[in-house]
Structure formats: structure tokens, C-alpha cells
Amino acid sequence: MTENQLPVFFRYRFWWHLLFWVVVYFIYVITFGGRFGNYSEELYRNLVLLPPRMIGTYLLTYLILPLALKKKRFVLFAMLVVVHAFFFGFIVWFSLRYLYGITHRGDITEISLFNLPKIISTLFSNYLIPVFAAAVVIFKKWYLDQQKNKKLAEEKLAAELSFLKAQVHPHFLFNTLNNLYALTLIKSEKTPDIVLKLSDLLDYMIYKSNDAFVPLKKELEILEGYIELEKMRYNERLELKYEINGDASGHEIAPLILLPFIENSFKHGASKDRSKPSIHIKLNIGPDFLALEVMNSVPFVKNLDETEREGIGLKNVKRRLELIYPGRHELLIYPGDTLFKVEFKIFWKK
After folding, report:
1. Which residue, among 175, 60, 62, has the nearest Cα to 123 in the 3D structure?
2. Residue 45 burial (CB < 10 Å; 0-12/13-18/19+)?
3. 0.85 exceeded by the pTM?
């Protein structure tokens, strides 16, 4: 994450540091000035204490704290915090008693070289500053780690989606070329029409389906184009029923998310049924959802497991649905000996 991508409270470090110390300075001035009734004295007193407070704070946040955050050396960190706390209390007490005492009162006769109770008292009244600064550093690291992990997760999902979508293209092309090859063997007059429709479909799949979402109307045109291709292949041998209910206007859908269900019904149903295959496709478009129901006849084939029946296309689309519509889709698959049925629903709103 670059500097410009950080939230405003993580940018302009110098000015935030300056603001932090200005706020600390005036908090102590106002607090102790109000307690003792002498604001002018507190202005000077806290000005003298500002350098040792800054030194102690930056020692903790930039020298000691990384031992715990980066190197995970918690025992050493804890020991150094104890030493630092005592050192911090001492330098603040020393500055208060000697530097402030000499420059402000000109009297050090009552000051001993070492006064443990006073050092501890000074520590408790001042150590909140480095603790608060350390908490800010910890929060910043946690936030940046969260954002980094989130970005990595998003990049991983985007890469996986691109891979899954890329798989749709050759899978579809392979199946359609098989259909085209079958028609060329019998020298069908429909071959030129199939080549033209295939060209239109590939143009959409390769160049126009790269967006995350496309208009539902356009996706339905692709489905209808594919169905027309298959109808040319099977002629009257196929019993096909295609029904759409509802208005597709104003809705968007992930590209090529519906096609595998339709393609699967032809590849694993009609293409393997040498008698009278049937496919029924029903699409309901509501204001809140889209529901697709696909049923196809299944020829009697022994030892055909469910995985093979589903094919690569359905495996692919299942994963895409998990990534694009998490918690917003329903997919039920009913494999049978004579009928294969898929019920699919997505919800428009999150």
C-alpha cells in the first residue's frame, strides 16, 4: 500500500507527530495548571519536560516495540519495557528536579541525587504518553496488515475468477467445434450458419465478457444463440422447450454464468441419447431474483457417476458462484437414471 493509498490519519507523519506533542503539551499544562492554579509556570515546566518525554516515547515505539511486533521476542520485550519504564521515570524526574529547578528556581539544595518514590510517582503521571503512542503504532500495524491481507485475498479471488472464466472459453469452443465437425461430415447446408453464429459467440466470450457484470439482456442473447446452434445440429430429433418469464431490463449478471447449465444439458444429455432426447429450459426473472431450471433426458448408461454427469462446466460454475454470489445463490442438482435436473437461483440484492 503506497503512501497516497493510506487513510488520512496515517499520512503526513510529521504533522501528526507535531500535533500529538502539541496536544500532549497543552493537556498537561491545562491539567496541572488548573490543579495548582499557575498556568504560566506549567507552560515553562512542561516545555522543559517535552524533550525527555519525546526521547522516552520514541525509544519505546521505534526501538523496543519492534521486538514484539516484528521479531516476536516477547520475553526480551517485556524485560526492556520494565527497564525503559524506570529509565523514562528517571529522566523525566531528573529534568523536572534539576533542569527545571535550576533554571526556574535557581535552587537545588533540597534535591537529592536519587529519590525512588519521586521517580515512581513521576513515572505514573507521565508513562501514559509512550503507552498511548505505542498503542497507535500497534493499531497502525494491525490496520495495514488487515488491508494487506484483504488486498491479497482480493487479488487471489480475481486471479481465480479470471482462471475459471478462461476455462469456459476453450471448454465451450471444444464442444462447439465437435458439433461443427459432425455437421461437416454429413456436409450439412447449415454449416455456414453455424460458423457465423459461432463467430458471434466467440466475439462476445473473448472480447465482450471481460467485465465483472454484463446486462442480463446480452447474456440471454448469448444463451439463445447457443441454443440455436444446438437446434441446427439435432433438427427434429430433439424435443426442446425454451421459456423465459419476466423482464430482463435493468438487471446485470456475471458473464457466462448461465451458459454451463445449458451446455451441460446438451453435452451430457442430448448428445449421448440416440433416440429422442428432450431438454426443457425455463428462466424466471423477478425483481429480486433470477431462477433457471434445466431438465434433460439421460440415456441409460451403467456406472456413470455424478461427477461425470456434471462435467467440467458445472464444477467451474459452482466455484464462480461461490466467489461472485456468496450467500446470494442457490444451486440444486438432481441426477437421475432417466432425468438430470438443475435448479439455480441468484438474488440481485446483497
Report:
1. 60
2. buried
3. no
